[in-house]
Design a protein that fits this description.
The structure is a homodimer.
Chain A lengths: L4 H6 L11 E2 L25 H5 L3 E5 L4 E3 L7 E7 L2 E6 L5 E7 L4 E2 L10 E4 L3 E7 H10 L1 H27 L2 H16 L8 E3 L4 H8 L3 H13 L3 E5 L2 E4 L2 H8 L3
Antiparallel strand pairs in A: 1-2, 2-9, 3-8, 4-7, 4-9, 5-6, 5-8, 10-12, 11-12
Helix pairs in contact in A: 3-4, 5-8, 6-7
The first copy, chain A, binds a DNA duplex (30 and 30 nucleotides) through helix 7.
DNA sequence: CGTGGCTTTGAATTACATCAAACCTTGTGG
DNA sequence: CCACAAGGTTTGATGTAATTCAAAGCCACG
């Protein structure tokens, strides 16, 4: 309330918003899709998949490119096929809260009539499937399984959102970072037990805006974890979980 | 991480958990229900309502009584008919985050297989309709409208959850309290324009745990609002919004 | 008309933010 | 292939909003 908004913005580089995402032709084969089993497409069997395939288009985004902005009319829903996306909301003075990171198999575009409730931007290079609402929703009548699946997805997101509220409202910086690293590991399934090496594609500033902290606090907390032997950080985008149990104890609040 | 957990708990009085909520007979008439139009029941017409009425039971809770706890097997879903309920999550050391307040017409019980994702407790005396999942879900096949309505509800909750993440992660104490008062007003539609008098049934400690603050900070911020002529607080559970526009400006971050 | 639980108010403390500057990377053009 | 911007990240010094500790009001209820 007292702090300087302009400074908040200066922390973050303005990312380019390209005129239009690259939109390709229909995917060759939904049946061969590598994330099919984890997406909402899994609601349909191989035969039914045709109705989906008929309306899907492939979209590619470069890092930093915006897919849609909060308030935009919600014309499409998407499936992440590859890459990482961040969802965020802004305050008028530029303060930002990232409400989620999306990975391959994740769904986005759930929205009410007021348009998208958050903006979506590519963290890495991204491939998505795009479905026009106008053509997808009619399928719900024929395949109620689809809507059932969407309800399941929304339910899971709601659960995650509640966990994140607990984190934002009640956890310390260390607890927040530990929780984040562990949920990243859970999400993308790190390789190399018993010291899994995590890829952390997002910037420190993204992590900060996800955890309700500043870049500096995130960096310092990483430093402290390193000094405690909890993690290794060979480079800024790689984290080795050296003592997972220690992290778990911290994440859950002692 | 450094602070004393025992103290955090002492702020909050342990509320009694009665052996069992009072469960009544089936409601006389769903068709005459005062919140029917705003609940998920609105998905069904008067005729179809019979299938719902056949499985519903009325439940009453005294203030402070627990409806269910996080992790409990999710056997039922509920509709709030009267009163106010709070949903919350706890950290092991007692820190609490309230994830939502529910008012008449609100739905609760959306949950995945791991059971309820939060606890639910009565703030005031509460009346609810209780539906056993086991008997409700079969109706989804016959009335896909029901599941469609649930998806709409989940979507709205998701949007609210994202707003709350922005609040918890990025807003100041004053911005949080102003946002809270305005959303309360929106939700329960205060009487008496142009200085609507709001009923705030929850305790300061509940408000604090909803906004990610301490009781003291909430109380002090109320005091500051009073001194600025933004609100009147005739008693702790009544707030008069004296300068709504001023509050709105604060809520959105200047 | 006490007594226990909220709420408010005050003083001291602190976790995290802010301000500032050095230090890396990574990509680019000479 | 190297120099050098330009971000992004780390580290240090200082400031502060909100918490913690403490105690006094204020109801509300038995």
């Amino acid at each position: 309330m007292t702090s300087d908004p302009s400074r908040r913005l200066s922390q973050r580089t303005e990312t380019p918003r390209y005129a239009e995402p690259r939109v390709g032709a229909a995917i060759p084969m939904c049946a061969a899709c590598e994330v099919r089993e984890v997406t909402f497409c899994s609601a349909l069997n191989e035969h039914e998949l045709a109705s989906i395939q008929a309306i899907v288009r492939q979209v590619r985004l470069a890092p930093g490119q915006t897919l849609f902005q909060e308030g935009d009319e919600a014309e499409n829903v998407f499936n992440v096929v590859g890459g990482v996306i961040k969802l965020y909301k802004l305050l008028r003075d530029g303060r930002r809260q990232i409400t989620g990171f999306l990975f391959p198999g994740d769904f986005l575009g759930i929205a009410s009539r007021d348009g998208y409730s958050h903006s979506a931007e590519a963290v890495t290079a991204v491939r998505l499937c795009r479905f026009p609402r106008r053509r997808l929703e009619p399928l719900f009548d024929r395949y109620p399984k689809l809507e059932h699946r969407l309800l399941g997805i929304a339910t899971d997101e709601l659960t995650a959102a509640q966990d994140q509220m607990l984190l934002l409202g009640r956890k310390t910086a260390a607890e927040k970072l530990a929780s984040f690293l562990l949920s990243l590991e859970r999400r993308i399934g790190a390789a190399g037990e018993p010291a899994p090496s995590l890829s952390v594609p997002m910037s420190r500033s993204d992590v900060a805006d996800y955890l309700g902290l500043t870049v500096e606090t995130v960096s310092r907390t990483f430093g402290r974890f390193r000094k405690l032997g909890l993690v290794d950080v060979p480079d800024a985008h790689t984290v080795v979980l050296r003592r997972r149990q220690g992290l778990e104890r911290i994440a859950d609040g002692d």
